[in-house]
Amino acid sequence: MDTPAFNAIEVRELVKNYGDLRAVDNVSFAIPRGSVTAILGGNGAGKTTTIALIMGLVLPTSGAISVLGRDMLTERYSVLARMNFESPYVDMPHRLSVRQNLRVFGMLYGVTGLDRRIDDLAAMLDLNALLDRETGQLSAGQKTRVALAKALINAPEILLLDEPTASLDPDTADWIRSHLERYARERGATILLASHNMPEVERLCEDVIMMKAGRIVDRGAPQALIARYGRANLEEVFLDVARGRGHAAGDEAEAEARP
Amino acid sequence: MTGESVPLSPSSARRIAAMVLRYWYLLRTSWPRLIELVYWPMVQMVMWGFLQLHLADNVGLAARLGGAFIGAMLLWDILLRGQIGFSISFLEEMWARNIGNLMMSPLRPAEFITALMVMSIIRLAIGFVPVTIFAIMFFGFNVWHLGLALAVFFANLILTSWALGMFVCGLVLRNGLGAENLVWSLTFVLLPLACVYYPVSALPDWLQYVAWALPPTYVFEGMREILLNAVFRGDLMVQALVLNAVYFAFGAFAYLRMLTAARHRGSLLQVGE
């Protein structure tokens, strides 16, 4: 059962241990439908693991995850066709052309009118000149655009992005952000992204979850966080949180983070 | 319960076709991959063909072998190439760092495995058919004359190869590409034990029990019965089929368990050695 009233993503008391290491420590949050939310944190904060847990690529030690009202431990195949993701931890087959890759993933996701969809994405992401080139021959920026095309091939209701503009030059990164903004607005999609890039988060996101050592340490709108910490921008807030100084979020943030 | 053992759905055929198309795109544009499919079977067949000719000229008993060496080599290649064909398609995903994309797509494990099976048959056909024609032309051995028996031999050997393929792919999923060498070497453990080139009676008594626990042993014994005595042993084939059902179920179970273990360990995020 899923109705528009449901949150897009709900995570409850999520724990992930790798041996003695606790990568995600009792994390709970809810992401409303149609929102753009960032998970911010330094290296090892648990951002990527949290996203991988939501996608089902990693299984939790304990806790519950539901996406579009479905339990991701037992019903993930009923929602995977309505989600998609982009991550620097995966590539697309290098020897296949861009068009071939998009065709294969379109078929996997059950896209109807696939040729038309590929043409639309190629026009939207400026891929027309690249469609018949091998994916492995493309530059980093071009590959990111292709990865984004793959992530949008099924017009997902939920888009999970792990550092979507990492290793891109500022111009290409800005270009990608513009398309993500447009997609979220036009599709009404829910976007959850993990990022180190503070200007990106300030621009794209209406909600920020701050993680440190596997725990949520604060949460709020970018401007609210900046005001709460008395800082000029989100980067300074990030540094306060990373170095354990300034405003201690405490119970207030934990209460806010609770679904 | 992790949701991995979901049965096939009506959309499964489309997703299986997508994966077969993905491997076909790769294969048809890569001449080294195509040549590799024919190269080793051809080398093996030439070597065993000349050995058989030599024995036939010099040893009276060997003259009655009736193509048993070449036949054994061709059937062995079904087993070996079937497993490697299955596993190498899987390895392509690991090498391309594409496994995460697939695992987070709607592609079910059963569909992925089915696509790997289809590809193992396609790859096998590309290598096997030219080699059998070569065997007819140069050594006068026509494996196709086995007719229905060949189909039964093939079915049994390919089932064993898929069972081994699922097991070894599960190991690679769980342990990363450090386990890749098993893809190339695992099946060879069957070469002496499954009595490919000699009868089971040539083994020590205690080792014969091991041999009879392996489905391919029944196939190679059955092949010798046909070639040397012109008798088709249906009983051997039924026993092989029953054993194969057990091996196949174990292979699928092991693959799913190791996939779940990989998801627990987070190793799908860190594809590599």
Summarize the structure.
The complex is a heterodimer of chains A (259) and B (273). Chain A is an alpha/beta fold.
Please render the helix and strand layout as text.
The complex is a heterodimer of chains A (about 260) and B (about 270).
Chain A: E1 9-18, E2 21-31, E3 36-40, H1 47-55, E4 62-67, E5 70-71, E6 83-86, H2 98-108, H3 114-124, H4 140-152, E7 158-162, H5 170-187, E8 190-195, H6 198-204, E9 207-212, E10 215-220, H7 222-229, H8 234-242, H9 250-257
Parallel strand pairs in A: 3-8, 3-9, 6-7, 7-8
Antiparallel strand pairs in A: 1-2, 1-4, 4-5, 9-10
Chain B: H1 12-28, H2 31-58, H3 68-95, H4 99-103, H5 109-139, H6 148-175, H7 181-185, H8 190-193, H9 205-212, H10 215-229, H11 234-265
Helix pairs in contact in B: 1-5, 2-3, 2-5, 3-5, 3-6, 3-10, 6-10, 6-11, 10-11
